[in-house]
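Meet our chain:
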Amino acid sequence: MPKRIVFFFIGFVVLASLVYYGFNQLKDSREEVDLWTLVPEDAVLVVETNNHTALVEHLRETELWDNFSMLPAARHFEENIAYLDSAAAGNQRLERFLDKKDILTSIHVEGKNDIQFAYYIPISTVGEHRFYRTFIESISKSSAFTEETHDYKGFLLTDITNTRLGTTFTYFSYHNNVIVSPSPVLIEEIVRRINRAKLTSIATGFEKTNYLDQPDVYANVFVNYRALPDLFELFVRDELMPQVRYLASLCQNGKLELKLEQDKIFMNGFSNPERLKDSFHSNIAPVKPQPLLIRNYLPIRTAVMMHFGLDEVTRLRQEAQAEGTAYGTILDSLSQTFSNEVALAYMEAYNITSSPDKIVYAHLGNVDLAGTLLSRLGEHLSDARKKSAFTEQYGSYTIQLLDVPELPAQLFGKLFSGFDQSYIVQVDDYLIFAPDISTLRALLDDISDENVWGKSVAQKAFLEETLQEANFSLFINTVNAWYVLSRSVTDDDREELLQNALLIKRFNQVSLQFAKVEKQYYTSLVIRKQERSSTSRESRFTVGLTLSFGNLLYSRPLPIQNAVDRSKEIVVQDSVNVLFNITANGSLGWVDSVGSKVRGTIKQIEYGPDKKLRHVFVTENRIHAIDNQGRSLDNFPFNLPDSVNVQHLAAFDYNKDGDYRLLVDDNLGNLYMYDILGTAIPGWQPRRMDYRLAAKPQHLSVGGQDVILVLLENGYVYALNRNGETYPGFPFSLKSPVTSGAFAKLGSDLKRSEITAVTKYGAVVVFNLQGKVLQREQLIRPSKSAMFNLVPESSNGRSFIIARQDQGRVVLFDQDLKEVLDKRYVTSAPKIVQYYHFGGDKKVFAITETGPQKTYLYNSKATLIGDRTLESNQPVTIYYNEVANNYSLYKVYGRELTKLEFKLPE
């Protein structure tokens, strides 16, 4: 597996391992041989190089060599070089012998579980003959090696064993060429090929293609696409192989040039189409490539994306997928309305056990006809199921459920399978499909917040280096795709994947594209390390802002967005209960005196005819709503009874039409709900619980049903409807107290929605919204004083960690319940734990000690950021700036608000 990883990400480096091997005496024949004719036809790749010194020097100038040298395979390789060089006589070295030679390296799949290499080395001059003969004699005399020879079909094969390392290789000579491989099976196959008389080149059709004559090209790379699936089959799960084999049938073979730049690998060239019947190429039969226009709708958190740019999108279907169904005619007609672009995207997953969100994009060539056909399909389904179709208004978009099994597969072919049902939404000229509604909601949020490829500086820089038009493109962000890759590989290979994690994640932007040009595909592979401005291997804090106030600051920096331009701002409250708004540029914005301390955070809602953001929050017995000038909205604040001591606020909009519900709970476990005009909602005045709430109520929308999820401190769980009535299966007990909220992974209905809660004593309980416990697992509790709570991600809430605290020791677990941090602190008092995740490895754990008033920041590797603590008496607020690739942290201490800037080391 380490060899496989090296092959995928810096495959060219494997050429250097030629020096691993020794060589036999040359035959006297001087007949010239085309080395390409010796390569067996089952080779997956063949790499040709002619300037190894320049290649190694260039690698050393970049970070590629440093990254490669960290791998176990590279360290093992260096050990072998040392032994071989020690056997050479005098000052002669292998690298001098091998330099300036046209050397081939062929890569093969041997059996069902291994990759092997063969090296084809010409010997041209008298000096090379002399070195070769002396080198072989020295190896035979060295105590570090043993040598055995045997005849195979007229050729003398020599087996060399390194007695110190236990490694072996076999070689033989043929017409002034030496063929070397660690696999005797592969050597014998080459001998049999030679004995078949007429030798033909594996690269037939590319004989005159030699990119090595061009500047800055370090290798020719021949790709045998017919054998490529055999390579993937070594480590990809069996269920994925049909898709891999089908996609690989786009081309038969190809020859690419290899170029290296600072932190980049480029391979460009041409590939011949696979013209066999039912191949991917034969089915899609593209005429011209198409541009990637969906970039404005692809979230930054995209892990893997396959893009199909075709003149006739219907050719993806391969066949009439919908034949025989009651709505087949409608689907056949609907498939004709799509044009130019179809894409399948997988979002970043947050642990290895969960499937990544999956989204299909299809460009509409005829929007009006598609709308008519979708309406007819919805009516047909409603009549058949005798219930009206589910729709949800989400902002300005309408999400619709089409309960058709495998709808994308029926429209676009088997590559798009895996949709038990489909939620759809039209965004501009694109129809977007997802198997669950929460995926579409998150996507629409990303589009609204401009967290998409088209607005990302880093992603736009990457796309500028890729083909602007293509027929098929595969994009991978290896950091975002880490858990997707982990799920895709076999269990045996996962450990070795982890060993190579550093290299894979550093070169995180990958694209493979094919664009039809006359009778071939122009082919481009880009492997790139995302650009970093002023990147440092050490984190340093720089002060971006310091503001002093007249009174002590009592609240944490509360995060908000500017109502006009959505820039990131904060609000702080002082000891006399005055709120101060600090804008993104560090100036003082609005000021508002609210009479008592703000409870919890500030919610922001789009309200009013201008749909601008308003700020909603609660104090001891009031609900406040103010505009971007700090002025109270009409009817606000809402005055609750003096006896009510508010704990939390939840604000949500059932129908996304601006008719918000404001739900608060008090210290006795009573729930009060109001609409945005201040009208008390029946059933909630109050809705009495048996105990105080462990966290704020959570509103969930599942399959057209609204659920208010309530966790009580005594461990009981309630699921309530809009009227405050309990859903069947609730309440039920988690059998232990709870001190934190739950994490919801919503499905298509109540049964398929999974909720994760963590009890005070470390039981991780997963249940659905029918009140059925699906899983219960106990985390290790080292002592009776150890307490646990669930910590949701602070910036978007799409993931969580679990914190265990025990006598000053804090241990954090990820969603797979694996330990990610273990630290001991000065005091035994409870710590405030925060978790920020800005995608991929951009993670920050913040732990605040309230006694010493210190905050500790850690990166994803649990390393202290900045090598120092921060003076802080409240939780911190952190923002990530993608353009500058840095982080902004706001903290309060005494009367001061401070903004610190920092970067994370790679």
Q: What stands out?
A: The radius of gyration is 32 Å. The longest helix spans residues 367-385. Residues 532-576+787-906 form one domain. Confidence is low (pLDDT under 50) at residues 1-30, 533-537.
